[in-house]
Design goal:
Keywords: ATP-binding, Kinase, Nucleotide-binding, Serine/threonine-protein kinase, Transferase. One of its GO terms (molecular function) is ATP binding. It holds the Pfam family PK_Tyr_Ser-Thr. The structure is a single chain. This protein is mainly α. It is built from seven helices and two strands. It has a two-stranded antiparallel sheet. Helix 3 (45-61) runs antiparallel to helix 6 (104-117). The two termini are 28 Å apart. 30% of the residues are buried. The model is unreliable at 1-5 and 153-178 (pLDDT under 50).
Length: 181
């Protein structure tokens, strides 16, 4: 099964004038699901926007969100992209095969659009028609807010008393792994 297909199309589940719905069973691929869907079973058109934003950042970086590891910090890909953008180092995020053949302003614009799509709050995310306009336009883009699932995990063997390694994620997400006895 292709993981980039499992989570898209949630918006097709709507009926009539619905803009949001709930589900009792969360189905999708971790790394692509929006926070409101993964945590609360709430999905909307903005859930698909989140998934699209993850794909944009994966394409630009040449790396997958799920299982992303960086030597400088322990953020996921979304947190890494947001951090690099805020530090003015967006071009360092780019896959080497893209950096040689692409216009840097278009690349940075794509990263910003990706970050706008993965913002924590669905109301802050653009709709897909706006995303298309932003990708093809030279207009000014908003400053992205913190992405959903911006997680700083504790490094094994790190000094946990250090303030540089928080005891929990920014959004207080806890993941429990179930193992057979």
């Amino acid at each position: 099964m292709n993981p980039k297909i499992s989570d898209f199309g949630m918006a097709r589940s709507f009926g009539g004038n619905e803009s949001q719905a709930n589900t009792q069973r969360v189905v999708g691929t971790y790394g692509y699901m929006s926070p409101e869907y993964a945590l609360d079973g709430v999905f909307s058109f903005k859930s698909d926007v989140f998934s699209f934003g993850v794909l944009v950042l994966e394409i630009m970086s040449g790396k997958r969100n799920r299982g992303f590891i960086h030597s400088e910090h322990d953020n996921n890909l979304l947190g890494h992209a947001w951090r690099m953008h805020n530090e003015g180092r967006s071009m360092e995020l780019i896959d080497t095969s893209l950096s040689q053949s692409s216009n840097s302003s278009e690349v940075i614009r794509s990263i910003i659009v990706g970050l706008l799509c993965v913002q924590q709050s669905p109301k802050d995310r653009p709709n897909m028609s706006s995303v298309v306009l932003m990708l093809g336009n030279e207009g000014i883009l908003q400053k992205p807010k913190q992405p959903g699932f911006f997680i700083e995990r504790i490094l094994h063997g790190a000094d946990i008393s250090s303030s540089s390694y928080p005891m929990s994620s920014t959004n207080d997400l806890t993941i429990t792994e179930v193992a057979a006895r």
